[in-house]
Amino acid sequence: MKQFLRNIFWFGLILLIGLSIKKMVTPFYLGNSAFKAKVKSFQKTSQHYNTIVFGSSHSYRQFNPSIFDSLMTDYNLSTYNIATAGTFNPESYYLYEHFLKTLDKDAIKYAFLELKPLNFYDWENTNTTRGSYWNTTSTLYYALNYINASNYDKIEKFNLTKIYLNSFLNSFVDTNILKGLFLKPSVRSKTGFVPLDKELSSKRRNNEFTLRYKTFHADTTVLKERITAARNIPQYYNSKDINKVHLSHLKYLISKSEQKGIHLFLLVPPRLKDNEYQEIIPLLNELPKGHSLELANYVENKTFYKTKNSFDIGHLNLKGANLFTEKCAELVMKKLQIP
Amino acid sequence: MLFNSLDFAIFLPLVFILYWFVFKKTGLQNLLIFAASYFFYGWWDWRFLSLILFSTIIDFSIGIALRKEEKKKRRLLFLWLSIIVNLGFLGFFKYYNFFLDNFISAFSIFGMELSASSLNIVLPVGISFYTFQTLSYTIDVYKGKLEPCTDFIAFGAFVSFFPQLVAGPIERATNLLPQFYKKRSFNYSLAVDGLRQILWGLFKKVVIADNCAEYANLIFNNADNYSGSTLLLGAFFFTFQIYGDFSGYSDIAIGTSRLFGFNLMRNFSFPYFSRDIAEFWRRWHISLSTWFRDYLYIPLGGSKGGTPMKIRNTFIIFLVSGFWHGANWTFIAWGALNALYFLPLLLSGKNRQNLGMVAEGKIFPNPREIFHMSSTFLLTVLAWVFFRASSIDKALTYLKEIFSTSLFTVPEEFPMVIISLILLFVVVEWLQREQQHALENLERNHLIKKPLRWGFYIGIILIIFTFGGSQQEFIYFQF
Q1: For residue A236, what pLDDT is reported?
Q2: Known catalytic residue: B372?
Q3: What are the respective helix, strand and coil percentages of chain B, to the nearest 5?
Q4: Cis peptide before B169 (omega within 30 of 0)
Q5: What is the strand order of the sheet A51-54 is part of?
Q6: Is residue A253 within 8 Å of residue A264, measured between CB atoms?
Q7: Which residues of chain A lie closer than 8 angstroms to B462, CB-CB?
Q8: A173 vs B contacts (CB less than 8 Å)
Q9: Closest by CA position to A127, among listed A87, A179, A165
Q10: Residue B472 Cα, gap to closest chain A Cα (Å)
């Protein structure tokens, strides 16, 4: 038995070392092919850009760099939208933090990062490369502390803990990620922005986007739920229910950005769910005023909740995206005047 | 709990440690296996634990009763009681809706419209396997081949033994039950070989079966859109899917049992290297084929009678075997087709001409062997179409398209990576075909030193991690 256990131990150790090396040497973005394509494209022409946008489809599909740059002429900005679909907290925070490390000081002036609560991944997704590649020991530490500091009920906490642990284990054993080394995905736009409308005419995954579009426009009453959520935002500003782990992580990202000479904006996009606003809006009171951009409340942003500006329940169409970008530029200019 | 899941990766080492370091006495080890097996099964659906427990109590009690009873009629009564209870459960859960639907259809042919609604019955995982295992116990006790078990815990552990509970091998009480009575001591070689077999089983399941499943599903589900060549490729994928899935499960089950000091019977013996259908059936799902042979074919008279009796018995055993796999006419058609393949060999007395392994002691087979292996393989591929198709009509349409001119066109789907993995798999199995499993006895080859061996194992693990298809349930769970 001793010999058996000894062999198991040594074999396991060798395997563990091998897998750890794999995890250490793989590029930080390997696992998100869309991000890889964008980051490669950005690196090729990085000297052109001084502003960068991170986040999920709420930024990828709604932040139009051309519009933004044209409105910010006084600041001489050149923006690249590096956001990719389905990239939420903590994946987006992980990507941003690691991306910072690749930059020279003062190479970028401004960065936008979507503010989102910790993502509830489906269990099945945690066994995939995309659902786990970002789960390093420090991301896991952040996620578990976040869960612990949250006001989720016990069952939610237990399930989330299981999800993040499983994802972490998968990130270790997942060698499927190495296939990404041989993939050469191409970018679809110079600025990184692709409005959802474009997908309706595109053959790629056409059915899914068309279905989403048609379903929403056949019954737009579902938007009421998001309008109610946007209307609730003012009351969430008064909430003291703050996830301290999330807050300190955001402050950490702001300070890391400053070290690279970057002013980080934390962006709250429109059309999120009520529970998401409930969780992130209170944080804005505690964050430095010049770093938060809230473009979600209904009173000031009615236009983002109109059907004519919508693609589906959660996203704006091209017209809405341009309006969103304009509003964003307006708010940024205001914020930059804050000392 | 799936073998290829994180749950099982935690469960197995825990039970292993408790088994060898905490519960050292045979009785306590049996108790642990009993409890762990119920936990393993309950992880899937705890409600059906009562079914196994009931079946265990019935067969245990009948065994005791048979020991005390000497009157032939009463003994036969007890035997029938066990058969009725066990097959009753199986019949209800697995075949109720099938019979109901077919009765209604049959009556409607004569213009009689019957109305009855199907029940929404959930099929308990592995019911076909443990039902046959407990039945073998009662029949063997009745026949006097086995002493009835008087230790309920040992008997319960035998019925529910978790490595083979849900997808076999269907163990004979005469082989497995006595192992629960004996003191078991840790056997290094057995355990290491068990681990190797588990590793190969995982490779078969996760790399071969799950990847083939993606293409087999794609092609079978959209058969109307594909050419004959693609459909033939789809049938090939299913052929490897079902083999990788089922023999992979058996390998993991046998390997896991070895870690606990148990020896289960072999269930697959490289069936796709068979030279005729009779050999194929001696190498495919051995535990089921021999079960039917011993408890159905031989009692019916086997091949001893005249030609009509031989034909009848052959058809009975193949049709029942098909029906055992599922309540659908497609399985019965699959069984019938195999009977048709087998009969010419039986009637010409050539059914036992290929008893050994093909090209024994050689690396390459001769042209004659290649021809026989290829033709047998092709026959099984075509038969699997019935097994996989959702209806006989669809199977016939699928086959018709294969045998059309579109067979000679370039396939629309041709996943090179998966085809390369299948080729690698076939080469390893071919080289190791004279062993019990593909990774057996690697350390006996003096050319393969430890670092090379470990490198090979790590290579397999990395292939599993890298090329593992999307996790699919074991096909045989549904049987």
Answers
A1: 95
A2: no
A3: 70, 0, 30
A4: yes
A5: A79-81, A51-54, A110-114, A263-268, A292-294
A6: yes
A7: 175
A8: 465
A9: A165
A10: 12
Q: Cα dist. A220→A168, A209, A223, A298, A305 in Å?
A: 39, 16, 6, 17, 11
A7 chain-B contacts, CB cut-off 8 A: 192
| C-alpha to C-alpha distance for B86 and B68, rounded to whole angstroms | 22
Q: Strand A79-81 relative to strand A110-114: parallel, antiparallel, unpaired?
A: unpaired
Q: Is the dihedral of CA B242, B245, B251, B256 positive or negative?
A: negative
Task: Name the residue among A319, A320, A236, A270 with its Cα closest to residue A114.
Answer: A270
- Compute the average pLDDT of residues A250-279: 96
The CA distance from A209 to B166, in Å, is: 42
Do A3 and B471 count as a contact with CB atoms less than 8 A apart? no
DSSP state at residue A118: P
DSSP 8-class letter at B295: I
Residue A176 makes CB contacts below 8 A (sequence gap 6+) with A129, B465, B466, B467, B468
Q: In the prediction, which pLDDT does B47 show?
A: 86
Other CB atoms within 10 Å distance of the CB of residue B83: 15
ipTM: 0.76
pLDDT band at A180 (very low <50, low <70, confident <90, very high): confident
Q: Name which of B206, B417, B466 to mutate to probe chain A: the one with the most chain A Cβ atoms within 10 A of its Cβ.
A: B466
Domain boundaries, chain B: 6-185, 189-275+354-478
Whether residue B444 has pLDDT greater than 80: no
- C-alpha–C-alpha distance, residues B109 and B357, integer Å: 50
User: What pLDDT is stored for residue A202 in this prediction?
Assistant: 66
Tokens 């296996």 belong to residue: B33
Q: Which of the four pLDDT bands, split at 50, 70 and 90, describes residue B468?
A: confident
Residues of chain B in Cβ contact (below 8 Å) with chain A:
6, 20, 186, 188, 191-192, 454, 457-458, 461-462, 465-468, 471
Of B6, B466, B471, the CB nearest to A176: B466
* Cα B73 to Cα B84: distance, rounded to the nearest angstrom: 16
The proportion of chain B whose per-residue pLDDT surpasses 70, expressed as a percent, equals 96
Q: Which of B285, B325, B372, B437 is catalytic?
A: B325
Interface of A with B (CB under 8 A): 1, 3-4, 7, 11, 14-15, 18, 127, 166, 169, 173-176, 178-179
User: How far is C-alpha B355 from the geometric centre of its chain's CA atoms?
Assistant: 21
pLDDT tier at B123 (50, 70, 90 boundaries)?
A: confident
Q: What whole-number distance in Å separates Cα of residue B176 and Cα of residue B160? A: 12
Contact A4 B6 (CB under 8 A): no
For chain B, what is the mean pLDDT? 90
pLDDT, tens digit (0-9, with 9 covering 90-100), for B294-303: 999 999 988 7
Alpha helix positions (H), B144-187: 152-160, 173-181
B468 neighbourhood in chain A, CB within 8 Å: 176
Q: What is the mean pLDDT of residues B107-135?
A: 78
pLDDT band, residue A268 (cuts 50/70/90): very high
Average pLDDT over residues B248-258: 95
What residues of B are in contact with residue A166 (Cβ under 8 Å)? 6
pLDDT in tens, A162-172: 999 999 988 88
Contact assignment for A127 to B191 by CB distance below 8 Å:
no
Task: Give tens-digit pLDDT for A43-94.
Answer: 887 678 999 999 999 999 999 999 999 999 888 999 999 999 999 999 999 9
The one-letter amino acid code at B442 reads L
Nearest CA in chain B to A13: B458
Distance, in Å, from the CA atom of B139 to the CA atom of A240, rounded to the nearest integer, reads 72
- Count CB pairs under 8 A between chains A and B: 30
> Scanning the structure block, which residue is given the tokens 């045998």?
B403
Q: Which of B186, B192, B458 lies closest to A18 in CB terms? A: B458
